[in-house]
Amino acid sequence: MQRLKTILKTVLIVLVLGLFHYVLPQHDVGKITSTEVIRMDFSSVNRFFYAQSDSGNQELATRDVRLINTQIKKTWFLGFFQRDSEKVMVYRNEDTGWIWPPYFKFDSSDLQAEASANLSPAGAEKWVVITHYGWRNRFFTIYPNAVGIRPIDGPDVRIIPWVNIIFFTFLIFAYFFLRAMWRQFRERSIDPMLEDAGEAWDKVEDHAGAAQERATGVMGRLRAWLATWRKKP
Amino acid sequence: MGLIRLIIVGFMVLTLIYFASSIYSGSVRREKLEKRWDADHPGEGETEARDTYIKEGMAAYRGGLRRRLLLLIYAVPAILVITALILTN
Q1: pTM
Q2: Which end of chain B, N or C, is less packed with Cβ atoms under 10 Å?
């Protein structure tokens, strides 16, 4: 039982951390090498990892998706430490619309124009910070969604993840608030009720005890014998 | 359509949070009043004066600023959404 609980807890924690890693914004430092539009024929596997068509449009099974091809700096530990080496990265550029994830992004076309404006030709490198959420997975053909592009002077920038700081602060606050709420509820509503129930239960047990003392004969002795096999408290 | 859905769902969720918080806040206030009375009048038990004291305290709380602050539960998310809208677009 204890082991099952541990497993369930671990699975839950991994799922929640995975969700956070997918949904919360992350920042990459890199150069935009090109932009393109490809038609996507979503499958049931990767459809989940795409948003919807541009917010004013109708939703069809197949549509064009804007992509931003880049060369970004590799990082260690969720982007906290930048490395010297680089890798290619491809972002999709989709409206998230009103619901999920809550980025309220409607300016995909503008973002694509910004990406084009900050193209980085060989010899005259232009560095940008790309804010995105999501994962790149080659096997399932999914891309992180670019949310913002900010030109910078060079690849050495200090990025402060304000949104994540606020989010996790709020989360800690919400945890303690919920805990306080639950404790108050238990103290003021459940415990008094349990006390009442406990008193009622004690009465029932007294009756049962008296009845047991009266119980003699074969069944009574059998029960007494069975009781000897029970674990002693 | 998305906006309407956001408003409806958001309103429902926030209403849930609002009621839970207001029950919690009221309960905390009531406990505080009880403890204050018991500290001032030790060993008296639950008298009628205690009841009126708590009743009056709760009435004052209901008309007070602290309870109005709970409306921030509706205001803050709305402000956050608007901020996010402005920041991303």
Answers
A1: 0.79
A2: N
